[in-house]
Design goal:
single chain, mainly alpha, MetI-like fold, 12 helices, elongated
């Protein structure tokens, strides 16, 4: 019987769909829909002041009450989903492009190029991420472009380390030696041999980096160096409404719960993916 016609084993069925995967997909799918269609469904604009009462209770002003300026928390939460998730996705794409390209270059280049790039990467990783971002953004400004580039560069150091390690492990395998003996170019070997065999761990790392980007951007916004008011961002909403906790308002808890639920959902999907690919990717490459 051919492999294509072989019935799936019990292990395959167990790892195909698990409760944790379903929960993760539901959570991420929900927030994705909110990011895509939420602003169109929001009862108010993100900057509209709908009442003169600060921290109005839920139900009295909108579904989730009002914030410290009297704006509708529910509307700002919907707008904030698009801002937070959009920025996190853009940062992750940029950091992965930079980290994977530089990591592969370091792995297939000469020893001195690899050593130089690795030492520069180690120097950047020696600084705590949030401290390095605060230093750069305090000096250059708090525009969205500066924040995106800063976070992407900081995040790319982790991607560089992983992609370099993966590429170096793959580059010493027999099929790569065969390609070299045929006279294939470094570009051909990288694209046709190394990259396809690193996609699984890199895909898992993409989910982890996306989660990190959400938390990082929210932290910068909370510190006043990320998204600037009146734009809605979950980190900004937490910062603006912390005083509401003293009055029993949930204006700060709702965006914090949104960040937590989205990160949990992404992590559940990543965990399932790692287990699913465990039979095809060696543990050494997954670390």
């Amino acid at each position: 019987m051919s492999a294509a016609s072989r019935a799936p084993s019990e292990t395959d069925l167990k790892t195909r769909f698990t409760p944790s995967l379903i929960i993760g997909v539901v959570i991420v799918g929900f927030w994705l829909l909110v990011a895509l269609f939420g602003p169109a469904l929001a009862p108010h604009l993100e900057s509209d002041i709908v009442t003169d009462m600060s921290y109005a209770p839920a139900g009295e002003v909108g579904l989730l009450g009002s914030d410290y300026l009297g704006r509708d928390v529910f509307s700002r939460l919907l707008y904030g989903a698009r801002m937070t998730m959009g920025l996190a996705l853009l940062v992750t794409l940029l950091s992965f492009s930079l980290g994977v390209i530089l990591g592969f270059i370091a792995a297939i280049s000469g020893r001195w190029i690899d050593g130089l790039m690795s030492r520069i990467n180690d120097a950047l990783m020696a600084f705590p991420s949030i401290i390095l971002a605060l230093i750069v953004m305090s000096a250059l400004g708090t525009s969205l472009m500066i924040m995106i580039v800063t976070v992407a560069i900081i995040d790319s150091t982790r991607v560089f380390r992983l992609s370099r390690a993966l590429a170096m492990d793959i580059s010493v395998m027999d099929f790569v030696d065969v390609a070299r003996s045929r006279g294939e170019s470094l570009w051909w070997i990288t694209v046709r041999e190394i990259l396809p065999n690193t996609l699984a761990p890199l895909a898992a790392e993409f989910g982890i980096r996306f989660t990190f980007a959400i938390l990082f951007i929210s932290a910068l916004s909370f510190l006043g160096l990320g998204v600037q008011p009146p734009a809605a961002d979950w980190g900004v909403m937490v910062k603006e409404n912390l005083q509401g906790l003293l009055f029993g308002s949930a204006a700060a808890l709702m965006p914090a719960a949104a960040v937590a639920s989205l990160t949990v959902g992404v992590n559940l999907i990543v965990d399932w993916f790692l287990r699913r690919m465990g039979g095809d990717v060696s543990q050494e490459l997954m670390n």
